[in-house]
Every structure is written in C-alpha cells, then in structure tokens.
Specification:
Layout: H1 3-30, H2 39-51, E1 55-58, E2 67-72, E3 77-83, H3 96-111, H4 114-117, E4 120-126, H5 134-140, E5 149-151, E6 154-156, E7 167-176, H6 192-206, E8 215-222, E9 233-242, H7 245-266, E10 269-279, H8 286-298, H9 317-321, E11 326-327, E12 330-332, H10 342-347, H11 351-373, H12 375-386
Helix pairs in contact: 1-3, 1-11, 3-11, 6-7, 8-11, 8-12
C-alpha cells in the first residue's frame, strides 16, 4: 500500500467519523470532571476504543481513570495521548475535550491501516494534567517503555507546531507563630501572616534580578482567623517556572531563601512542602515537528509565525519529552480567545470546535502513519532526541 493511498484512506475514515467524534467532544464538555475524577470521560474513551478493536488495560499506574489501549503489534509503536481533566468552575476551558478526542480519532483511523503497514498504535489516557501528575505517574510505572514517539495536539487561539513549556516546581510554605490578642497583648504574639507578607515582598524585590523566562506567582492560602487575633498559622502557595532545569532549581532555592529570611525576621517556624512532582521543560524534537508540519501543509493549513516561547505555560507533557521523542502542537480553535476561560470552553462546542477536532485528528493520524512506514524519518526523530 503506497503512502499516498494510506493517507487518503486515513482522511476518508476521519471524514466518516466527524460526527461521532464531535459528539464525544460535546459530551465531555457537558460532563466536565477534574483531575483523577474523570470517571465518565475515561469510560467513554475506553468504550469507543474497545468498539474499534483496541485492547484496553484500565486503572493503570495507580490511577482509576488512566488507561492503555493498543492496536497492532511490534514496532514502531506510536503513542497518542488523551488528556481528560477539566478545570474547576469553568469546565473544559483548556480544551481537553478537543485534544483528547482528536487523539482518539487519530488512533482509530490509523488502526484501520495497521494491518497493511504494520507497527502498533497506542492510546494512553493521561489524567490530571491540570495538576501536573498524570503522565509523571505513568512514566514512573513504566507505561511509556517500548514506545518510539508520543504525540497530542492542543487547541489554541494560534496554530503552532513547536511550543516551549517551562519547567514548574510547586511550593507550599507554612509558617507557624504564636496567637495572642492583637490589642491587649500584641507583644505576646508571633505573627505568621507577617512572615507570609514578608515572603511576598522579598520575592517582589528579587524580580529585577530574574532572567526573562522565569515566572514566580503565588497566593495566600491561609491568613488568620480574625483581625483581633495575631495569626498563629499562615500559608502561601507558589509556582516557580523557568525554561531549563538549572535555572528552575536555582530560582527555587532563592524563593526558599526569601521564606527562610521572613521566618527568621518574624520569629516564625517554616515548613516547606513541595506539591506534586516537578514538571520538566519541553524538550523540542525538530525532526518530529517537521513531519507534523508536512501534514499541515498537505491539508492546506498555515502555521502562525510566532516565537515558540510566547505565552509559555507548563505541563507534564514536558516530562514525557525527556524520555522519548514528543510533540505537542497547537491547533486552531478560534482567534483572540485565551485558554482557561469560559469563552474558550464554550467555543469547543461550536463549528470551530468541530474543525479543531478534525484538524488535530487528521494531522496526528498522518504523522503517526508516516512514522510507522518511513524508517528513515523515524531514525531522524530518534537522532534528534538523542542529540
């Protein structure tokens, strides 16, 4: 079967699946589930994959909603990642109902040509991306072993193939002081809230000396019980980000020094808790991105000319990119809207949302088929990763 025939067959299959894929995406929108609680979403994904002949392992890596679905046998083995979780209050404001369904559609389409081209297609249901833990747990459990590449596509207001993701460390800072009546016996108290405020002030004073890619942002999570009681306990939660691990860990230590100094200045005790695992920066694979870009061009899609580090966030996809070749391109949902908003969530169930699902499914499916059939292309991808 010639590659042109393979790709034409895949596109025809996806055109036939357009209605059912968009319906599945809308179902996810109507039933948003937050991280590690994606029970209905995971079940719906598993159901459509089993109906398409995939063999599914459920409840993997210690997570009830994670799954591993495979079709075919042997190598190359290409993984398509399905993010399932929604955001608190605003539902699918990150568009996982589009990205997850695009991966499922791509996998089903490729499975129909696997008997002709060989290899295998793997669908990994990866929970809890918004809290940055699902893919990391699956890495630790060895789920990604034996795979040749991993892919997914994310809806956006832009169409970009390569995007930078910043490394991310989550810090929870807990200060303990001593309660006292704020008016009658202020000299008897040790103000934990003062320590939190001083930590923020110290970090703000440090910002002028930070590298341009560094981000530090935080909130006060506990600040006292009443104005007439000197706060005995106070806490803050910070995210620290940078585009390389060396800088990430350096800035983390500087933030902790701000907290240690605040504790010393106020007489408080400090306890530091790291939330979840570190999200690694994205390791860009240019060779794999170029293959995806060729499929966009085949479909007549124009990439936006923007720097890859513009509007950078963080994701546990970065951790995957450090263990095997990975891409996370952005597909166009609608111009001039931002992720993590209700407006973005609502756009996913419009005609724009249907188009985004199909763009992602088609580009991913064609990329996976090329990786399976073109050994030279896959070798270039692996060389890029090793370099």
């Amino acid at each position: 079967m010639q590659m042109t025939e393979v790709k034409t067959h895949i596109l025809n299959i996806l055109d036939g699946l357009k209605g059912s894929l968009f319906s599945l995406s809308c179902d996810f929108y109507r039933n948003p589930e937050t991280g590690l609680k994606e029970y209905k979403t995971s079940a719906a994904c598993i159901s459509i994959l089993e109906e398409s002949g995939f063999k599914v392992d459920k409840n993997i890596a210690g997570m009830e909603t994670a799954f591993n679905a495979g079709f075919g046998s042997g190598r190359p083995a290409i993984a398509l990642l399905v993010e399932m979780d929604a955001l608190p209050e605003i539902g699918h404001g990150c568009g996982h109902n589009i990205s997850g369904v695009a991966s499922i559609g791509a996998a089903i389409a490729v499975s129909k040509v696997i008997p002709k081209i060989g290899g295998s297609i793997i669908v990994l249901g990866t929970p809890a991306e918004e809290i940055g833990i699902g893919k990391i747990a699956m890495i630790k459990a060895g789920v990604f072993e034996g795979l040749d590449a991993a892919m997914m596509a994310h809806p956006s207001s832009k169409r970009m193939v390569s995007r930078i993701f910043l490394g991310l460390i989550r810090l929870n800072l807990h200060f303990k002081g001593k309660a006292s009546h704020a008016s009658a016996y202020p000299e008897e108290g040790i103000n934990a809230l003062d320590a939190v405020i001083q930590t923020f002030n110290s970090i703000n004073a440090m910002r002028q000396q930070l590298r341009g890619d560094v981000r530090i942002h935080g909130i006060i999570t506990e600040g006292g019980a009443a104005p007439n009681i000197i706060p005995e306990k106070a806490s803050a939660s910070f995210y620290v980000r940078a585009k390389d691990l060396e800088e990430l860990y350096s800035v983390k230590e500087r933030v902790l020094n701000c907290a240690r100094g605040a504790a010393l200045a106020t007489g408080c005790q400090l306890a530091v808790e790291e939330g979840a695992d570190m999200n690694a920066p994205m390791k860009i694979n240019k060779a794999l991105a170029d293959i995806y870009r060729r499929q966009m061009q085949l479909l007549g899609l124009q990439e936006d000319e923007l720097p890859p580090d513009k509007n950078a966030g963080s994701s546990d996809i970065g951790n995957v990119s450090h263990i095997l070749p990975t891409i996370h391109p952005h597909i166009l949902l609608r111009r001039d809207i931002n992720i993590h908003t209700r407006e973005f969530a609502d756009a996913t169930i419009t005609e724009d949302g249907k188009n985004a699902v199909m763009e992602g499914a088609k580009c991913l499916a064609l990329t996976a088929a090329e990786l399976i059939t073109d050994k030279t292309a896959l070798d270039r991808v692996k060389q890029d990763f090793e370099g």
